[in-house]
Amino acid sequence: MTTMLIPQRIGGEDLKTSFQWSHDRTFTGFVFDAHDPGRKFVVELLVDGIPVKCARAIDRLGALEPGIGDGHHGFTLSLSANILDHAEIVEARVANLGTMIGEPIAIRAHARPGQNLSPPGAVRWLGGLRFSGWIAKGCEPVIDILIDDERVSQVRPSGWSHIGDTEDAVAVRALDFHISDRFADGSARRLSAVNRKGDHLEGSPVPFVAFAGGLDRVHPAAAADSESLRDAILDRLVPMSIPFAEYRRWRDMLPKLVGGPHSLKAAVVIVGAGEMDDTLTSLNAQCHADWVAASMPQTEDYVGFDNSALREFLAGDAAEADFAIFLISGAILESNAIARLSETFVNHPEIVAVYGDVDVAGDDGSLWPLALPAFDYERMLEQGYCAHVFALRRSAAERAIAGGACSLYRLFNSLLDDGMQMAGRIFHLPGSLATLPSLDLGAASEALAAATRAHLKRRGIRAQAKPGRGQVLPAVKTEQKPDDGAVTIVIPTRNRRELLEACLGSLQPTLRKRDCEIIVIDNDSTDPDTLDYLASINGGRTKVMRVAGDFNFARLNNTAAAAANGRFLCLLNNDVQALDDDWLEEMLGRISAADVGAVGALLLWPSGVVQHGGVTLGPNFAATHAFNDRMEGDAGYGDLLRTAHQCSAVTAACLLTRRQDYLDLGGMDEFRFPVNFNDVDYCLKLRAAGKRIVFTPHARLRHLESASRGADTQADRKARLERELRNLRAKWADVLMADPFYNPALSLDPIPFSALAWPLRSMTCRSSDRPVPVDVPPGF
Predict the structure, then answer these.
(1) What is the C-alpha to C-alpha distance for residues 522 and 545, in angstroms, rounded to an integer?
(2) Sign (positive/negative) of CA torsion 631, 635, 636, 640?
(3) Structure pTM?
């Protein structure tokens, strides 16, 4: 690209300008007033004479043109493929003045020979043998995959993806595929993705390298410690994965998980009307022989049992049992299930309850893993996920039965009838313990709703529990009465009046239900239209505060929190719009529990693709939003987009927290995380203080994501992102590699909940312990 300096006159002053096209969807340039080096301009991008985008020219120029002011006079603007495909002339002008920046670009004349301005799709390497991508609407859906020019397979779309910028964004069909493990040989290779017309997808060919079982297995055991450390770090950053469809093969590759020698006796209690033969066959195949079993008489409840019959069994045939295993009739136990549960009780005297992962069977007999989290109270209430196969220490079982529990769901949740003190003694054992029978989800949801209501009533919590609609497990929606405390909604902004106005407009139905204070934090807006709008809304329930300086998201929110009057803070981006009237009441209901520190919402891109379904720690040794591969209405892996559940963090694009908690923890870290990961760090600080983080799909909002500040693609922004990521890894490395709400059997490549991990991470039993930060000195 050639930089062209075009002198322009504004009120007798010379401007130096440049405007360039990188032949993708991105246009860059700069505008500089030699007579006033500190002056900054807003740039408009026009397509065929119509303004479509604007940005403030404050990006760092780098080596493009040394000696120009402070070097922060550049801009970057991107067009969607749909707009660029039909564009003739693209030009940049100084906003409100109309002064030309550089020279107009004739798109057709400047396109490369054979260049397709609207790409047929794209492909990228996720690590190991896994790749993802997308196919444009109307393009051939069959893609040939070649490795080093050898055709190895064909793939078709299997999900959804989101491409484009803000309101131009669209949903497209997504590619997600693995290649044969014969290519995991440590050799540098190139993958090409080509459609039937012979067009390469954008990004193709893709260089990649994969190692069978991870780098740590490539080097001999005698390798130097420094080499082993390097391999372990690279395995974190470029992990392997195996598709769910290969689950049986994946299980066969695992080391056998077998309990050690011990003397505990198990009482096995079978509940429900399912097929007993399969369950009994699996019991007789157990490698641990010291057990006694009984099938409880059926009741009207789907997973109910006769309480007195269970008492008789434990007092009679099972009088010498040390622990009791409860399972739904028709479940098929793994041959080592009782041995593993017994060993867990032996090795961990503090444990009162243990549950494990389960498999579900397809109609064709295929197996699919439900890899579950460490104990999740919210998910227990709304899904009963842990109550189909679990074990209780005898004393805990006797207390629950004495309290009148008469269903599997009520038996499990009664452990917490007196509060959350026992939550830390409920452990999850990774690895499948059983294959579940086909569940009657309607009847199971009714039974779970009844058990949840009984539990919440016992705790003195005013709440409703209504049956929902699950696809794999039962579903219940709980609704707790929100506290009456006042709410301060905090919205940082800079220019872009249309975003802020749409955001505030979408909040009006909510504000009619609840009296909220709104603090708009203006960070150096310069656009006259925006300044007029800010002046018009300042007063009454809306207060406009001015904070000057570089964009520092953490500092903006901290400033507002210090001035807020509300008991609760709702941090909200200016490019977020409410989709219903009840989102805030739903979030307030969740945080009414004293041990909940923050609540996050389901955020959707305008395309309908999920933008935020909770934050998962670990992928790429970082933090990422879950379910970006799912469309609105999708149930998500394990129905996680149908039920509220705990996670390690939620995004501050829409986050509800108590103001006192925020202030007590020092708010967001303005120095280590000024722009990125400040919300993750804040949520982890809450968890370290003993608070739970809850994501609710029942609060829905639209998010344009980074519409006002832009993406982190400029060199200085990339450097900042990398520094903040280093800070996150330094402070929270342990929890990044062991997120309690993300199963160690699931992959750590960039799309959570979508593949199996390889190699396997630690499969030892675990609880949702408080994370412990590393005290990183300043400058590191």
Answers:
(1) 6
(2) positive
(3) 0.82
Do residues 53 and 77 make contact, with C-beta atoms less than 8 angstroms apart?
yes
Please name the residue that has the structure tokens 């006769």: 306
The pLDDT of residue 683 is 98
Cβ contact 757:745 at 8 Å: yes
Over residues 624-629, the mean pLDDT reads: 94
Taking the C-alpha atoms of residue 355 and residue 346, their distance in angstroms, rounded to an integer, is 15
Give the C-alpha separation, 118 to 156, whole Å.
20
In angstroms, the CA 657 to CA 207 distance is 44
Return the structure tokens found at 677. Answer: 């990961």
The residue with tokens 């893709």 is: 206
Asked whether residue 10 carries a pLDDT value surpassing 50, the answer given is no
Angle at 354 between CA 350 and CA 359, to 5 degrees: 160
Please state the three-class secondary structure of 451-487 as a single string.
HHHHHHHHCCCCEEEEECCCCCCCCEEEEECCCCCCE
* 176 close to 160: Cβ distance less than 8 angstroms: no
pLDDT one-digit tens code per residue, 246-272 = 999 888 887 776 666 677 999 999 999
pLDDT per position as a tens digit, 290-306: 999 999 998 999 999 99
pLDDT of residue 118: 63
Give me the phi and psi of 316, to 5 degrees please: -105, -100
The residue among 622, 773, 769 whose CA lies nearest residue 685 is 773
Q: H or E segment at 29?
A: strand 26-33
